[in-house]
Amino acid sequence: MPATTPPAAATPRGDDSWKITAKLAKAERENRIWWSFEFFPPRTAQGLNNLYDRIERMSDLGPEFVDITWNAGGRSSDLTSSLVKTVHNYFGLETCMHLTCTNMPREKVDTALKDAKEHGCRNILALRGDPPAGESQWEAHAAGFTCARELVEHIRAQYGDYFAIAVAGFPEGHPESTEGREKELEHLKAKIDAGADFIFTQMFYDFDIFAKWVKEVRAAGITVPIIPGVMPIQNYGGFERAVARFRTFVPQYFHDALEPVKNDDQAVRDVGTQLVGDMCRKILESDLGIRGLHIYTMNLERGSRMLLDYLGLTPSVNQIKQLPWTPSLTPKRREEKIRPIFWANRAKSYLSRTETWDEFPNGRWGDARSPAYGDVNAYGVSLNLTDAEARELWGAPESLDDVKALFQKFCSGDLKALPWSDTPVAKETSVIGSQLEKLNGRGFLTINSQPAVDGAPSDDKVHGWGPSNGYVYQKAYLECFVAPERLDEVIAHFDRNPQITYHAVNAQGDMRTNTQSDAPNAVTWGCFPHSEILQPTIVESISFLAWKDEAYELGRKWATVYEPSSPSRKLLQGLFDSWFLINVVHNDFKQPDAIFKVFESLGAETNGTNGHANLPSGTAAVNLEVCEAYAFKSDEVTNTKMHLAMLGRFSFVVALDLLLPTACAFKSAELTDNKLDRRLKPFTCKSDELTNTKLHRRPRNVTFLSVSSLTSP
């Protein structure tokens, strides 16, 4: 078992015992199994605060070290350095800091290395990194490095043996490589020859593939330690996203075991723990000479704890140094009202509220306060397809109609993926599939949705999740891209419905919303035996702003799979540079179709069609020859702008107020500046002009008719 947690308040050190290489050698001499954890920088400040609390708890599981990722493009460099510093100074854990070549000039690399040394970090994982933001292909920075080998050489030249340096190995082959296994082994050996000390592997689920690769590595003359990377199965959706993101092979027996329970999150975790745990046992008991595991935690706690417990590796209480309960420095902990009273038993039984409140992150909208917020995409935004695969899947759209058709095909199940969803449409989407198809056909490009659910059993094949014998609930939710010229009309319509909550934001971060609160709006919750209410899926402003960067980045990456001068690239770049991303929640979950009725009631012009769409609630529409008649039965008509847009289709329109003895005659072409054309008589209006796009008279039961259906007034 691992030694007692190292003392806190670590300082910069020259003692090589803090290198991972020294720790692994010591563990080998003691003939003990060891493990380590990986964390990524959360997207939000509150998520970071809560990650510190999580790392503090997970340090009691006895990791040999932790490593901290560096996001694609170096965007999280400052946060990575801050995490490394805090983990040292407050938790006394050794760290390994990721460092990539992506968007990193030598000067920035040197700054990162200098900060790492000052913070006491003795270990670096040198990586090439993912393609920069907005690009589908990796390109070296003009003043940077072209590959991980060059980065290793630079670190050695600048710092000698101060740092232990790790590099990445790919048992299943690098996802972007087309060179073949032998060439990849040559690249790996070149990194070792340049000065790398040990190897972290990409995640895998097939022991045989891993074992074969290890033997090939050894046969190539590489003798440094190999650390296998394993990822606990937290829930079925997350598992599918991870294997798609990293193109990981999954043995059929994994699918056979998980498929029957995929709608029961707790059962998925139990079965997944056994599957991954059995694979880990094979590794540790094999003749490969490997006695350690590197766990990709995804910033979640319970799955890692369960895996270690299944393997019999959870430290016992008397092996963990006991400390008094002192308040945390994080804002959330200062206000904490619940902590276990039996502190001495927490190594195995401490399951506080904050350990499990985000452990079933089924939807995109997890809580931004969660350190796990960001999920697998924290490792870089990717389409999970090569450019050729993307073009084959999505063709080459050259018009908005082409784009709408692709979204419709995905909603109907005829297209297996979109940039925002790399797995086929979820089963529950079939419940609202036809409505989604219509919505996309009208120009609302949906990228996420869920139907309203009122107390479905937790083992329901379509809507179920969580432990058995419970009930689950959902508010209807839609997320879509909207053309900027239509946003005002859409929002004005939403504002008239008290059950609607919305957020709208563009790529530049300009946001509009009808909620003034930063509090989360739970859109999925569940009631389970012997458990408090679980709320795994929420909508809140801070989460939406964090997500919008990724949403637009995925759209831009779609554009980059086409040639720069192509119509497809220009179309998609223009769309994702200018369109708004909106999310809409209908808060009455007992009305399953209400959210779609809101969209259906938008005016003809605002829905992006040719004017033959449904009108506001309580409205009758009758087709007369090539035109339409519109009857508005609302108490007032205040949004003249919307009505004028609709009437602009007709050369002459008569407005007849059924409650008045005279009629109002308008010529729509003269109303573009909101002024009343008085040349046509008779008319009734309390003002000579329509100001602020509001009718001064509030007519009741007004009927707008096409001229072809009327005689002259």
What's the helix and strand layout?
Elements: H1 20-29, E1 34-39, H2 45-58, E2 66-68, H3 77-91, E3 95-100, H4 106-118, E4 123-127, H5 148-159, E5 164-169, H6 181-193, E6 198-201, H7 207-219, E7 226-227, E8 229-230, H8 236-246, H9 252-258, H10 265-285, E9 292-296, H11 302-310, H12 331-334, H13 346-349, H14 353-356, H15 387-394, H16 400-412, H17 433-441, E10 445-450, E11 453-457, E12 471-474, E13 476-482, H18 487-495, E14 500-505, E15 511-513, E16 521-527, E17 534-539, H19 541-559, H20 567-578, E18 580-586, H21 594-600, E19 620-624, E20 627-632, H22 640-647, E21 653-657, E22 664-666, E23 702-706
Parallel strand pairs: 1-2, 1-9, 2-3, 3-4, 4-5, 5-6, 6-7, 8-9
Antiparallel strand pairs: 10-13, 11-12, 12-16, 13-18, 14-15, 14-18, 16-17, 19-20, 20-23, 21-22, 21-23
User: What is the CATH topology descriptor of the largest domain?
Assistant: TIM Barrel
Q: Name the CATH class of the largest domain.
A: Alpha Beta
Number of helices: 22
CATH architectural group of the largest domain = Alpha-Beta Barrel
Residue share in helix: 25-40%
In order across it, which strands form the biggest sheet? 7-6-5-4-3-2-1-9-8
Uncertain stretches of 5 or more adjacent residues = 1-13, 316-366, 373-379, 604-713
Proportion of strand residues: 15-25%
Q: What is the SS-derived class?
A: alpha/beta
Which overall shape is indicated by the principal axes computed on the Cα atoms? globular
Q: Total strand count, please? A: 23
Distance between the termini: 94 Å
Query: Please, how many domains?
Result: 3
- How would a textbook summarize the main sheet? 9 strands, parallel
- Determine the mean pLDDT: 74
Say what oligomer this is. Answer: single chain
Rg, rounded, reads: 30 Å
